[in-house]
Amino acid sequence: HKTGMAKAEIQQVKLRFGIIGNTESLLRAIDIACQVAPTDLSVLITGESGVGKESFPQIIHQYSRRKHGEYIAVNCGAIPEGTIDSELFGHEKGAFTGAIGERKGYFGEADGGTIFLDEVGELPLSTQARLLRVLESGEFIKVGSSKVQKTDVRIVAATNINLSQAISEGRFREDLFYRLNTVPIQIPPLRERGEDVWLLFRKFASDFAEKYRMPAIQLTEDAKQALLTYRWQGNVRQLKNVTEQISIIETNREITKDILLNYL
Fold it and tell me: Residue ranges of the Sigma-54 factor interaction domain (predicted)?
C-alpha cells in the first residue's frame, strides 16, 4: 500500500495528537483521516475498546475547514435513553416533565462544526431514525416541537461493537450504517501492533516517572517478550493502567517477567 501522505506529514500528525507507534495499519488510519478531513464525508471509526479511537475525530476536525467551528464529543452509551433525543436535538420548554427551559441540543450547537458520536451502536432505534434524517437532509426537529430546523454538521462516529451483527439482530438500522460508513477507518488492536507496545510502554513509564517524581521503570528482556505476546484485551488503555500501577507499587525499578505477570 502506497500511503497518500509523506511519512514526514504523518509524523507531524502523530506528534500533534500524541499518537505513538509505527505499525503500517495505524499509519494508514492516520493517513485516511487526514485525506478525508477536508471533505464533509461521514466517517465510521471501528476498533476494540481502549485502542485510542478518540484521537481520530479530532484529527478529522482539526484538518477540516470546520476547525474553527464547534467540536462536540458525545458518548452515546453514557446518556440515558430517555434524554438522548433531547441532548442531541434539543427540546422546547415544557416538552416533557422537567423540561423547564428550552435546550438547543448538540446538533444545534455544533452548526458549522463536527460532532463525534462515540459508541454509536448504543443509540436507540428511534434516535437512529432522527440521526439518519440529519445525515440525509441536515434537518432535525426538537423534542416537543413541530418546527423543522436546519444544521450543517459533520458527523464522525465510532463503535467497538460489530455493527453488521447488530443490524442482523435488528438493533441497528442498515441504512444508517451505510450513511455513517461512507469512509471506514479501522484502528488496530494493540496485540497486532508488534513492537509499538514497547514504544508505548516507554512513553507511559517516562510520563509516570515525571508525574510521581521518580526514576522510570525498565523492563528486563524476558519482560519485554511477555509484553509482546500478551493479548491486551483492554488495549492501549490497559497498558497505560498497568504501567501506572507498576510505577507506583514496585520499589525496584527493574521489572522482570515475574513481576510484570502479577499485573496482567
Answer: 19-248
* pLDDT for the residue numbered 96: 67
Structural domain contains residue 2: no
Does 1 map to a domain?
no
CA atoms 200, 204, 207, 213: torsion sign: negative
pTM of the predicted structure, to 2 decimals: 0.91
| First vs last C-alpha separation in the chain | 35
Place of cell 464533509: 40
Q: pLDDT tens digits, residue range 216-226?
A: 999 999 999 99
18: Cβ–Cβ under 8 A, 6 or more apart, which residues? 55
Domain extent for 229: 191-261
Query: What is the pLDDT at residue 99?
Result: 63
Task: Find the CATH number of the domain harbouring 39.
Answer: 3.40.50.300
pLDDT below 70 — which residues of the chain?
1-4, 94-100
Burial 36-50 (b: 16+ CB within 10 A, else e): bbeeeebbbbbbbeb
Q: What is the pLDDT of residue 1?
A: 47
